[in-house]
Amino acid sequence: MKTKAAIVYKFNEPVIVEEIEVRTPRDSELMIKIAASGICHSDYSVMNGTIPHDLPEVLGHEGAGTVVEIGPNTEGYQVGDRVMLPFVSSCGTCSRCRSGHPTLCEVHFSGKRGKLIDGTFRFHKGDQDIYQFSRIGTLSEYTVVHTNSVVPLPDGYTFENAALLGCGVTTGVSAVTRTAQVPAGSIVAVIGCGGVGLNVIQGARLAGASKIIAVDQITSKLDQAKQFGATDFVNSKDVDAVEEVKNLTNGNGVQFAFEAIGLPVTIEMAYNMLGVGGNAVIIGITGFRDTITLPAVFLPIWEKKITGSFFGSCLPSEDMPYLLGLYKQKKLMLDELVSKYYELEEINQAFSDMEEGENIRGMVLFEKDAN
Ligand SMILES: [Zn+2]
Ligand SMILES: [Zn+2]
What we know:
This protein is an alpha/beta fold. Helix content is 26%, strand content 26%.
């Protein structure tokens, strides 16, 4: 059948929105009618080649929608089920999943990521095979995904809220609660107050951090950080952020510094603002050849730590519904994250708005629901 999708054919050229073919689900696969998809900075990074992907590729890696067709061996799913699509699928049975690293699932990272797990394609245009971002490709009216890529959407939540959990929200909040396990009363710094950083900030607020220092170069982002729970603000364009963070902490430094940008200089900044026993948690994805330089002596003599966090080290099937529950309890802010709605055809405009720093999150709503 046909689906309208946002596709990158060539790096640094406008994304094409057009009708392509989506094929019927095979073993352990579901066809999903997408209702909502977030537009993430990583989609933009595919378009401009910062994140190396095979092309052509359907963009979109956080979404929610309804099951409209089921393949063989999809017990537990039926047509009409409402689901969320996280950007990492966790099989639950490989050694990485079982050893507490479900976001690094061996099955998900096996073979070519833009294909289905069985190594074949569901999107086509004529004879051309088309990849799907993170094996989901949510910036499309319809997509076919493996059941590993699906988390049931509990009743009482909108597709729009659910879509946000597929990447940005869970990456930020779970970096605090899962990866770092920040104890109540901690002093935390967050470097980068974009879509992920704001969610680190609200994760730190949920964890009961006593001081949350937001670091960014853009004043409007620091204002948003306040809304999400930051208590102190450092504009790193104006001051030396490491010195300023030390000033704000009686010279001690912070217990946790989260880096949510993906630049060597800000990773080094995170490490350098730590106090004794501090943990620098790195969320941002750098270029593949980037390296960092750190004063090594403080690893032993201050027992500093540096920790990577991918998709918040979360367990999607547990954390995504859990986070929706926190939203219902009015503890987690979701509505405030969506700055602007776009038609699928406006994807290139959404990218330029993102580059201007205008949006926390842009969202494509294919279908509105009444929940
Ligand atoms: Zn993303
Ligand atoms: Zn696995």
